[in-house]
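Readers of this paper often ask what the protein records in our data store actually look like. Nothing more is needed to write down the fold, since each code stands for a local backbone conformation. Below, we set out a record of this kind in full and without editing:
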Amino acid sequence: MGVAKGASPTSGSHPLERRERKSKGEGEGKGCTGERRRGSPVTSGPDGRLARAEAGAGASGSEEWKRGQARGWAEDGETGKNYTRSFPGIRARISRGGASGPITAAMSTMCSGGGRRMPHVLTVAGSDSGAGAGIQADIKACGALGAYCSSVVTAVTAQNTVGVQGVHPIPEEFVEEQLRSVLEDMGVDVVKTGMLPSVGVVKVLCQSLKKFPVRALVVDPVMVSTSGDVLAESSTLSGYRDELFAMADIVTPNVKEASALLGGVPLRTVADMYSAAKSIHNLGPKNVLVKGGDLPGSSDAIDIFFDGKKYHELLGSRVKTRNTHGTGCTLASCIAAELAKGLPMLRAVQNAKTFVQYALDYSKDIIIGNGPQGPLDHLFSLETHSCNARARSFNASDLFLYAVTDSTMNRKWNRSIVAAVKASIEGGATIIQLREKEAETCEFVEAATACIQICRSSGVPLLINDRIDVALACDADGVHVGQSDMPARIARKILGPGKIIGVSCKTPAQAEQAWADGADYIGCGGVFPTATKQNNTTVGLDGLKSVCLASKLPVVAIGGIGVVNARSVMEIGAPNLKGVAVVSALFDRECILTEARKLRSVLTDSISENCR
């Protein structure tokens, strides 16, 4: 229930949105316009690195924060194998350009059913009457990230911002009855544990999970509250070590809990945290996250993630605030929510850390209660985005037809950047990147702001090439950076978890780094020679495929791609290749709308044939 001060954070997702597109009139160019026709929805499997579906297989591991988003292909982040899962009713977007019906999302898995299945987390924890930690924090955190959260109450506590005044454990047989009620009926994806007050409750939980397997188990070994009050019997430690850890996909102790699990070994340095992570991993869990929010003398919030092979040092800014009650519960619940949405483990942890970071920062000055440990505002996104309907998260299907503007080409054809963006969207572009190398900053911001209004009225995300300052100034949906630009991890710190970040990559190593840095997608190329970048080394179709197969992120191909060769690109046999990015094929043509429709038709036909 209570946890590491300043424990770190993460990211989220918006609900799947269906885009309305209209199409009317073929002419474009200088005055070529068109509208979009509403597309009919079809059902599709969830996308975005979904963990394997087999009951009890565990989580493959861990984008993106806010409300969860259904996606198309499943890429298991740990094995690299592709898995699909039949989630009834999750809808892929489909639009119609002209008389045909091109599907914007790669039709990797078709599923039936009429409703949308939400990611489902079950929290098994204590109730906090002050609502800062325990099941109350778990439910709020999961809801903020778009996951449904059911609960099994293991104890009822009387507590507030001063401390814990009383603990009333729930009888073990009634804990078992609650578990059975939820697990046998409600399709739980991930179980997250918090306060388990006795070894008997631990045994009941283990027995229930053997009878009703779930995809992942997140164990937050809560033993002492943030205020220092004991919340579990000392014998519970043996239950964790002897039974529960062997079933856990991740264990998330803070430094005090890690010390207790290891028999009182002191943890005073980051090196001690590395050693503790390995020692706890030896007790059976697949992954360990040792949280350093309570590490003495540290200016940063440092967490150590260990998967049994590789260590990751996750850094976050330490927020100076009294409102740290429930940070550990929140972090573990966010990890569970992200896993339930299908993210790989490391990404789920990164997203969770970012979420807590933002919640701490937003909540640092709120006043609730008179004690030393105030709660977080888990629903801060409702406040920051209640009047901002345009706030959205990344959907890999947006990469389908990726239009990259070019100022030189716009001048050649005597068209404004706004007219070019409008025409490309009317022709079926699913995402826009503004690449402007010559305009003054003020001029660029003004044009980008006008383009954003057009994109958001059509439900199309708009990214800025390289210029994070411009993206911030005009509130763009994100940025795309190259290998020589600002690293994605720094861009993520500046932009926050709600923005889209893409990275140009030519090699599998660069793709791996982009994923580790928190990017949402990679752009791979140039696939073919192109006039827009004279000295750009081409990777060819084989190079593109090797990057796709190595990448844990969705990929968009770029470089010399047009109507003639787009089909060959989409047919390389890489499930995470989600579309093509084009420059000259659209913007160095007299009629952007017409060319966009042609290219979209080619892409749609290639995907339709691949699904047969």
Remarks:
- Residues 377 and 383 are 10 Å apart (CA to CA).
- The first strand starts at residue 42 and ends at 43.
- Residues 1-31, 33-113, 384-392 have pLDDT under 50 and may be disordered.
- Residues 345-363 form the longest helix (19 residues).
